Amino acid sequence: MMFKKIILPIVLIFLMLALIPFSLPAYYMMFLTTLFMYIILTVSWNIFSGYTGYISLAHSALFGIGGFISVFTTSFLPLPLPFILGGATSAFIGFLVGLLTLRLKGLYFTIFSFAISLLAYNFFSFIVFGRARTAGVYIKVLPDTLIYYSLLAVLLIIIVISIWLIRSRYGEAIMAIGQDELKAETIGINATFWKVMIFVLSSIFVGLTGAISAQRYLYIDPQTAFNLRTTFEPITMAIVGGTGTFLGPIIGAILLTIIEELLAVRVPYYYFLLLGILLLVFLLFLKEGIIGILQSVRFPRKRPQSNTSGT
Question: What is the pTM assigned to this prediction?
Answer without folding.
Answer: 0.92
